[in-house]
Amino acid sequence: MANLKAIRVRLGSVKSTRQITSAMKMVAAAKLRKAQDAIVQLRPYADKLNEILIGLNTALRDTEIENLFAERKNSNGRVLLVVVTSNKGLCGGFNANILRDTRRLIAEKYSEQFRRGDLWFMPIGKKGYDALRKLKCNILEEHNNLYAGLTFDRTKQIADKLMNLYLTKEYDRIEIVYNQFRNAAVQKLTEEVYLPVSTAPAGKAGSVVTDYIYEPDQVSIVSELIPKSLRIQLYKALLDSFAAEHGARMTAMHQATDNATELIKDLTLQYNNARQAAITNQLLEVVSGAEALKG
Amino acid sequence: MKIEIITPDSRIYSGEIRSVRVPGKKGSFQVLKDHAPIISTLDKGPVIIADEQGQVIKYEITGGVIEVKKNRIILLADSVSES
Question: Is A91 a catalytic residue?
Answer without folding.
Answer: yes
